[in-house]
Predict the structure.
Amino acid sequence: MIILGITHPISWNSAACILVDGQMVAMAEEERFNRIKHSPRIPPRKAMAFCLEKANVNKNDVDYVAIGWDRAWQAALGNLETDTFMSSLNQTAQWLRRGMTYDHQLPLDEYPKKKIIFVNHHLSHAASAFYPSGFEEANILSLDGSGGSESGILAVGRGTDMEIFHKIGNRGSWGLAYELFTDALGFRRHSGEGKVMGLAAYGTPDPNGLPFIDWDEPIPKIIPKQRQQFLANLTPRKKHEPLTTFHKNLAATLQDSLERAGMRMVEWLYEKTGLRQLCLTGGVALNCSMNGKLALLSCVDKVFIQPAAHDAGTALGAALIVHVDKMGERPSWQMKHAYWGAEYTNDEIAQALSNYSNIRFHMSNDIYKETSELIESGKIVGWFQGRFELGPRALGNRSILANPSLPDMKDKINNEVKHREPWRPFAPSVLEEEIARYVSPIMESPYMILAFDTKSDKKSELKSAIHVDNTCRPQTVSKTTNLRYWQLIKQFEKRTGIPAILNTSFNVDGQPIVNTPQEAIDTFLHCGMDNLAIGDYLVWKKEG
């Protein structure tokens, strides 16, 4: 059975995936192909074409197309029934017209209607985390800005079944609150939320939290009118205005309130089910700091967070739900890595390199040894290998790498390479078997999506890859799932004694992560990287 999963065009992060007999073959976000950051409100045409090509099938071979969103009329009806935000028929009609406009943008004219299946947005989120987790049973928390008839669910997964215990309406959305504060703090909504999370570490949270949250409810609840009043009394920061202590404290209070609410929700689920496995999903689940706090709760033993937890992940979740519905069983496939995108051969890379007169390059006999020597010496290296990663975090296939023990490396990469705010943090990629040296408790984190306190005696080794609050969001690198990256870090360890490398995404601020060799070379030439390790080729810029 071949199932093509896609995001609905109303989504903020567009993507497609393809399952063949329940096994993932390919998944990619549209932004990697059209070069539009996030590709909001854009159908995933190029990602769909990539998935079909990677699976070596055509449109006629596809049994079902699964869409990670309700039909417009279903979502509108759900809002009318469950949320006063859509309590008037006039508002619901307006929302319905908007939703149907996006329905009509679905690039599915060549597929028979009987093959097209719409799936509830938050169930798609939930399935994208639960079914690939490897957990037979788990609590599920899904939170985002909005998803049709709700902005979040608290649920449980058992075998093939998922049961929703509680829905969070759109007006009381935790994701929307974070978006609104992101905007008020002078950053771009649906893109700058990670900046707010990073900024929070520089401030001190108000111990009372945000004043528009009802903490007396079993599940903390946002009071929409009070939230609106609070925001109305703020003076929005303009993009280029300085960040004051007030802004830093506001970010800290927002982050602290989200973490406290998330912990209460997870504890509520544990009281309901007694289960100690947790799946996190939805755009809010990209908040590393919150995830780290949830993972350390006494009622949680194991956590799984799907790396494309934002809207892109609904393409996968919808496809998995259709598989379960049609086959009557869960796929045996588990998500053990995020490398589901496009890849390029050494021949293709050599052809791209030959088109540039302002570089010099050679094929390395040992790309790991040569690259580790450069990194040890303080060079900043672009690392382009294998299939590109799923999700917003570079995980060692489209990465910019540096020596984490050099104290000036953070400022140098922010200023000269990434062209972004100097306070933004980076993360370390650590050999999976050595993670206990740096954080406690020992926990796998293959998707760089959990933040932990760094052990005090190891901070010097990770100076430029830990945040101002001494936390880090490590990526644990497995020899099994990414041998090339593991070998590079192992070579660096042999030279320095440090089994970790500073890792950030291979892009500059505001651009998607690179996909093709040409994009990698262009980015390398137009920022402060020293070298490029692309396939088995090592590249330098020509002087002058």
